[in-house]
Design goal:
- This protein is of the alpha+beta class.
- The protein has three domains: 4-40 and 79-150 and 333-352, Nucleotidyltransferase, domain 5; 165-194 and 270-327, Nucleotidyltransferase, domain 5; 196-269, Actin, Chain A, domain 4, CATH 3.90.640.10.
- It is built from 13 helices and 19 strands.
- The strands form five sheets. A six-stranded mixed beta sheet has the order 3-2-1-9-10-19, sandwiched between helices.
- Helix 3 (86-102) crosses helix 4, helix 5 (148-155) crosses helix 12 and helix 9 packs across helix 11.
- The two termini are 34 Å apart.
- The structure holds adenosine-5'-triphosphate and magnesium ion.
- Magnesium ion binds at residues 22, 24, 148, 170, 172, 303, 333.
- Magnesium ion (MG) binds at residues 22, 24, 148, 170, 172, 303, 333.
Length: 353
């Protein structure tokens, strides 16, 4: 039987459709309560440089990167996991929140949604306030912030509220976050600004120094996704290759070089070393009782970076712990935020106050 309260609450929720957002450096995902993930698009805004007018948001804006005429720029409002361009972050949030409402086909005056947003652990108070302000001005009624590693752990269905240690490593575009969680709280954590974007930069520098080839960000990312690896190929004769196209720095003319997995593993060595060392140090800082839980439960990895070939094996080799990739690593954080928003007691435990 419905109590009147829960009934009106349900109606309220039906119209307000509370949402969880993973406002990532690379991708923004929106999870609507009761519906699931409805939006996943690049965190990019295209603007007119002179008038600051927003021309496109998301996929349409990303298509313009590197191809825009002089007066149009494609902006990524987040750098290293935090808002670097406030106006554009607000414009992006507003656009995505409105889109959730519009897809209902209703033209009513709809109550504003409650919003749960994942943010990197260890961001400053000023950075947190920037997220809250952008969300409120973007159309939210109330904003809950959840640290990304906590959200990732919830999204990966780890027993975060139990008295047992769980470890997650989320490797996104701007930040890599590693955390050990127990009893609804973070026991030890690190957040470093070495992640997917840094891997792309490393590919750009490597192409320059090894092949005198100037490649763009999009090419570097595509090569990394196609053949990037954290360990050399098990069989050197069975490696995937990819054509890397750019401009020859000597002649100024277009040039194509075919590269393989082992070359990429070598090129990505430095940033991967940093990521793996930070995972090891996070484990070293963990109390011994909890470390023994980790040996049992293993480490879960999420974020787009978790998909880098053989990264799970590499982390397992170096930490001597079992490592599992979350079933859908690009959506772990947003699913976790959504789940927290659905369970009020969990939300009250894990939200940042
Ligand atoms: N198959 C793949 N192999 C390697 N890297 C990948 C793969 N797929 C995506 N990535 C990388 O994952 C990153 C994006 O991941 P994700 O969407 O989790 O980041 P984000 O949440 O937007 O960033 P952040 O959490 O740092 O704010 C990009 O750098 C992208 O190049
Ligand atoms: Mg992320």
């Amino acid at each position: 039987m419905y109590s009147l309260d829960s009934f009106s609450d349900k109606i309220w929720r039906y119209f307000a459709h509370d949402i969880a957002i993973d406002l990532g450096t690379a991708n923004t995902l929106v999870y609507v309560l009761g519906k699931g993930i409805t939006i996943r698009e690049p965190s990019t805004v295209a603007v007119n440089k002179r008038t600051r007018e927003v021309l496109a948001v998301g996929s349409n804006a990303k298509k313009m990167i590197g191809k825009t005429p002089a007066n149009i720029v494609a902006i990524r409002p987040l750098r290293n996991g935090v808002i670097s361009d406030f106006d554009m972050a607000e414009a992006m949030l507003k656009y995505f929140i409105r889109r959730v409402h519009r897809s209902r086909g209703l033209n009513l005056k709809i109550p504003k949604p409650r919003l749960a947003i994942g943010i990197p652990s260890g961001v400053t108070e000023v950075e947190r306030k920037a997220v809250i302000d952008a969300a409120i001005r973007g159309g939210a009624r109330k904003v809950y912030l959840i640290e990304e590693p906590m959200a990732a752990a919830i999204g990966a269905n780890l027993p975060v509220e139990d008295p047992t240690g769980s470890m997650v490593v989320d490797i996104g575009g701007g930040t890599s976050e590693m955390a050990v969680i127990s009893l609804g709280g973070i026991v030890t954590s690190r957040s470093i600004r070495v992640a997917g974007d840094e891997l792309d930069n490393e590919v750009i520098n490597w192409a320059k120094s090894k092949y005198n080839l100037l490649i763009g960000e999009k090419t570097a990312e595509a090569i990394k996704i196609a053949i990037g690896a954290a360990l050399p190929a098990p069989d050197p004769n069975k490696q995937a290759t990819a054509a890397m196209r750019g401009r020859d720095l000597k002649t100024g003319l277009p040039k194509e070089v075919v590269v393989n997995e082992d070359e990429l593993a070598e090129a990505l060595k430095r940033p991967l070393r940093v990521i793996v060392d930070n995972i090891k140090e996070t484990i070293e800082e963990t109390p011994p009782e909890i470390i023994s839980d980790l040996y049992q439960n293993g480490i879960i990895i999420s974020g787009g970076g978790a998909l880098l070939k053989r990264l799970d094996q590499r982390i397992s080799l170096e930490t001597k712990m079992p490592v599992h990739i979350d079933e859908d690593p690009l959506t772990t954080v947003v699913r976790g935020c959504g789940k927290a928003l659905e369970e009020l007691t969990l939300l009250s435990k894990v939200q940042i106050t």
